Amino acid sequence: MIHSLNSMDVLHRKGGLMHLRGFEKIQGILKRNNKVSGIDRCNDKKGETEHGKLSCYKMDQHSFITNAQLGSQAATKYTIDCDGEPPPPEGLEHPCEEGFDWISDLWGWVSPNTNKRYALAKVWDGISFLDITDTTHPIVLGFMDSNVTIPVGVPDGYWGDHKIVDDVVYIGAEWEGSGIQIYDLKQLDDLPRPTNDPPLERGKVHRIKPDNWLSLSSIGHTHNIVAFPELGKVLAVGIGFYDDNTACDWSVGDTVIVLDVASDPIDPPISCLNIGSEINTGYIDPYAQFNSNSGYVHDAHCFVYKGE
Question: Are the C-beta atoms of 46 and 34 separated by less than 8 Å?
């Protein structure tokens, strides 16, 4: 997955974060900027990097950071849908067990004050903040832990998402009670820059505290965070599976939580968008596949239509 930020692209893959540079978007096509000297250049004919043997095409690896170096304390094993499965043969891992060092979301931000470039990597147990202004030497500035403890071995415990509106990041997660963490990113400019490489031991990275936490009593869990900067809103979707004690009652169709971040970006007023009653006036089964409530929203892209 690539999230594009001006002429800089950040690629994340299972097991860690790679920062790659040297691309320009020209009519929707990624083209290499040959003036940039990468640490591990891509051999386009072979489709792999010269040293790391990573699959690639017209993309050079400039650096690599493991999830442990990002600050995550994530488990290395994660059990998914193993209930009722027979035990594996002796000496073999269970087929529903797999390594668990994933990044569930990744976005970039450019400081309006210093023009420094940052990456925000959402992992199982929190979110990591990196200064990637020097693409060959990214600096891990800190890690913000989740406000809840996610036990090992639960389905969907690793899903999390975040969006940035007007220099403030809004961070949600799917595990029950996660709520939404809010942090003013302009503070990143003032954080100390470690001169040594990030510690290899999990959890030893400097911890960052959120400016606010919209907790279980108001938000509960979310699957995705949706930015609507044109209207100064942030929408929380994918609610209602685990938490009943929320500001919006998904059982009657209030399936989208709206944060009015234009009014107050750090402590925004909360309202509810009732989609269930609009699209299913009789509130009659079947609902959307795999969902148990009318009007469920899994993801969204919001914009103001200016056409005719």
Answer: no
